[in-house]
Write a structure and sequence with these properties.
mainly alpha, two-stranded antiparallel ribbon, 2 strands, 55% helix, disordered N terminus
Length: 200
């Protein structure tokens, strides 16, 4: 695996990429059908893609990109739990997480240490360079957030962040497959009808 180097503050742009439009319209009702405009999935997808496009450019120099940033953020804040717990929380495959931490460790941004609570586990902690890189990236990612949330007033931004946090925490604690199956059963309690072959 090739050795990577940590992101330097001067290698990360201070502003959002030029490819992102400066002005964000207050409404898209003129170009999007009303039914789609009010669709939760469509709205979440558009906002998510807009943020990811900017954020990916800002953390491109970091090993692992956006996922590397999430690991670095957790390591810099010394979140409890070992490497496996961190992989589960971030929704990253354990094998992928191992390689990702290896890259960050080779870049001098994180290090593995025995967990005092359970020495069988390894905690992932940021080095001094890792914390400095994380702090620098945090300030730059604020530009991405402000750009995406530009149509909202200051109090609306705070409320949006809080509501989104509540949704994220709840979604994270639920089993998506089990929850989805239960919801489908509630909406359509009738047993599924057997499908007939196309020949019939």
């Amino acid at each position: 695996m090739p050795e990577t180097t940590p992101a330097k503050p001067d290698t990360v742009p201070d502003t959002v990429p030029d490819a992102v439009p400066d002005a964000v319209p207050d409404t898209v009702s003129d170009t999007v059908p009303d039914a789609l405009d009010r669709d939760l999935g469509w709205s979440l997808g558009v906002v998510f893609r807009a943020y990811v496009r900017i954020a990916d450019a800002l953390v491109a120099e970091l090993p692992g990109g956006a996922r590397g940033y999430q690991v670095l953020a957790a390591a810099a804040q010394e979140l409890p739990g070992g490497q496996g717990a961190l992989a589960q929380r971030l929704g990253i495959d354990k094998t992928v997480m191992t390689y990702l931490i290896d890259d960050l460790e080779q870049a001098g941004l994180v290090e593995r240490r025995p967990d005092p609570a359970d020495r069988r586990n390894k905690r992932v902690l940021a080095t001094a360079d890792g914390r400095a890189t994380w702090t620098s990236l945090c300030s730059r990612l604020e530009h991405a957030e402000e750009h995406v949330l530009a149509p909202l007033a200051a109090d609306e931004r705070d409320l949006f962040r809080e509501l989104l946090r509540k949704l994220a925490v709840r979604a994270h604690t639920l089993d998506p497959v089990t929850s989805a199956c239960e919801l489908v059963a509630e909406l359509d309690p009738a047993p599924a009808r057997p499908r007939h072959s196309a020949r019939h």
